[in-house]
Amino acid sequence: MTAAGRKRRESVRMQATExxxxxxxxxxxxxxxxxxxxxxxxxxxxxRDGGRAALASRGPSGSGCRLSPRCLQKLAGYLEQGPAAHxxxxxxxxxxARVATLIGRKFHxxxxxxxxxxxxxxxxxxxxxxxxxxxxxDEQAVTAWKEATWAEVxxxxxxxxxxxxxxxxxxxxAGRPGGAPGADAE
Length: 186
Known about the structure:
By secondary structure, this protein is an all-alpha fold. Helices cover 49% and strands 0% of the residues. It contains seven helices and no strands. The chain has helices at 3-21, 26-33, 37-50, 69-81, 96-107, 113-122, 139-153.
């Protein structure tokens, strides 16, 4: 959920608190705030049990970061050094997969590629895709290959002829052999 979404949800819950304090019933709260009746009843129960504080946001949900603040600082330093300093000499690009591998090597903690992406964003980095083509690329060879080799190996598409959008559509009775079922139907 986005930060704006969390703020809106927090605002709605605080409005619900005010409505409950004014003795409004859950159906009225649900109607006014355009939330489900179930949410309004749950909020009322929370409000009864713990007051306004029970409906206050507890922050983003989900598991916490598996790296300590000190490890996060070290990771940011490693990322600043660049991929070549850590064995990726092909290019100077931090991909999420590389960062996940780096975290595993340096901190012995397993991160998924998507988890590494979120962690990079949290640290102010973003996974990158090379912005330019490799220096060794031979454009003339690529063009020649596309014109000659690709044309030969490319599979032909469906012939542009009489095709049907439905493979289950039956042919007309007139086109059936004499002994076939439905051949005499008109």
